[in-house]
Design goal:
This protein folds into 2 domains: 70 residues, no CATH class; 126 residues, Four Helix Bundle (Hemerythrin (Met), subunit A) (Up-down Bundle), CATH 1.20.120. With 211 residues, the chain is of the alpha+beta class. It has 8 helices and 4 strands. A hairpin with a 2-residue loop joins strand 3 and strand 4. The chain starts with a helix and ends with a helix. Bound molecules: zinc ion. Zinc ion binds next to loops.
Length: 211
């Protein structure tokens, strides 16, 4: 390919209606450097360079009928989760990260099912941590029943209930919450995790510094 052809392609990249602002390899927010564009009437692929000095890798963004469909290759980075919650439920951390890997691979259905399973372990392990005397009952009761019976903190209870409602939609044939999707479920799980973290850290502080 001639230099002027490459230059023309770089100009055409600037005409793309969407260019990703996140490197799929180092996950930094970037303005990617256009390298080369190739397309026919329906499909296109643009190669970019990540300007982050610690990364500096090339990646390819794909387009179909001018619609952006994703950038590859992708590298999965484990989700940062608070230590307090990690200590309460190692299974949650593992399943949640597997769900995020499914999201990373554009496996939306498995992402939703994985989040629902992660939520169950998060809630049940948290309940067992709070009320160890009820461990056997917690293990066999439904998720909704555990949320109602064994969670005292109102913020955790309200968030966990809503996560469970949307979570059920991810595993059932008919959706009840049609305006909510798997991204909302992920957001509410993260909110539940944040409230659990506040609660667990506050309890730890109060137990260490009694009056
Ligand atoms: Zn990068």
């Amino acid at each position: 390919m001639q230099i002027n052809e490459i230059f023309n392609n770089q100009l055409r990249i600037k005409e793309l209606n969407y260019v990703t602002d996140k490197c799929p390899l180092c996950h930094s927010s970037i303005s990617p450097v256009p390298v080369i564009l190739s397309h026919n009437n329906y499909k296109g692929a643009a190669m970019f360079l990540c300007p982050n000095k610690k990364c500096g890798n090339f990646f390819i963004s794909h387009y179909e009928n001018d619609r952006y469909t994703g950038s590859y290759p992708k590298i999965f980075i484990e989700q940062p989760l608070p230590d307090s919650v990690k200590n309460v439920s190692k299974c949650f951390v593992q399943i949640y990260n597997e769900a995020k890997q499914a999201e990373n691979s554009s496996l939306k259905n498995l992402y939703g099912i994985g989040l629902r399973k992660a939520l169950e372990f998060l809630i049940k392990d948290y309940c067992i941590n709070e009320k160890p005397e009820n461990a056997d009952a917690i293990k066999s009761e439904s998720l909704a029943s555990c949320i109602n019976k064994y969670i005292d903190d109102n913020n955790i209870k309200e968030c966990a209930s809503r996560a469970a409602w949307i979570g059920n939609d991810e595993t059932h044939y008919k959706r009840k919450w049609v305006d909510k999707d798997v991204t909302d479920l992920d957001d509410i799980i993260q909110l539940t995790v944040a409230w659990m973290d506040y609660n667990l850290r506050t309890k730890k502080l109060l137990s260490e510094m009694t009056k």
